[in-house]
């Protein structure tokens, strides 16, 4: 019986499961010296500790970032949610970026009806 050793490069080093999720996202850099650049993209997959998403151009590795993802579930079946995550860009190319997640929170997402109602009440 031959024992076959698995090389470390053959194993997936991730300890958390990745879930395919393709939703719109927005990002902005935090603690930037210049006005914080922002952009949009689309998630490819995520876990509780990181996410991979499509970008229009490479992001600076090591930069702290806030990512806001439109979440597919709703609160009380009526109010949209978004996931807001704070983390760091750990890998980036011209088409994709990977971010480690240090902290995240779910927030309600404004809907068009709520925006109209808020504008009307402000009059």
Can you walk through the features of this model?
- The chain is globular, with a radius of gyration of 18 Å.
- It has 1 helix and 7 strands; from the N terminus they run βββββββα.
- Strands 2-3-4-7-6-5 form a 6-stranded antiparallel barrel.
- The protein has one domain (19-122): Beta Barrel (Thrombin, subunit H), CATH 2.40.10.220.
- The protein has one helix spanning 112-122; strands at residues 19-20, 24-29, 38-46, 50-54, 64-75, 79-92, 96-108.
Task: Give the structure's gist in a few sentences.
With 123 residues, the chain is mainly β.
Architecture blueprint of SSEs:
Blueprint: E1 19-20, E2 24-29, E3 38-46, E4 50-54, E5 64-75, E6 79-92, E7 96-108, H1 112-122
Antiparallel strand pairs: 1-3, 2-3, 2-5, 3-4, 4-7, 5-6, 6-7
Feature tags:
123 residues; Thrombin, subunit H; 6-stranded antiparallel barrel; 1 helix
The CA-CA distance between the termini, in Å, is 81 Å
CATH superfamily: predicted glycosyltransferase like domains
Query: How many distinct domains?
Result: 1
Protein structure class: mainly beta
Broad shape: globular
Average pLDDT for all residues: 79
Count the E strands: 7
């Amino acid at each position: 019986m031959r024992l076959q050793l698995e090389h470390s490069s053959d194993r997936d080093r991730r300890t958390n499961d990745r879930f395919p999720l393709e939703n719109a996202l927005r990002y902005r850099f935090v603690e930037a010296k210049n006005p914080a650049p922002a952009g949009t993209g689309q998630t490819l997959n995520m876990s509780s500790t990181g996410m991979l998403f499509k970008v229009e151009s490479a992001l600076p590795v090591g930069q702290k970032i806030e990512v806001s993802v439109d979440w597919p579930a709703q609160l009380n079946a009526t109010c949209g949610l978004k996931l807001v995550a704070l983390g760091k860009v750990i890998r980036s190319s011209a088409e994709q970026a990977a971010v480690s997640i240090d902290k995240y929170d779910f927030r309600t997402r404004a809907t068009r009806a709520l925006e109209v109602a808020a504008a009307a009440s402000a009059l």
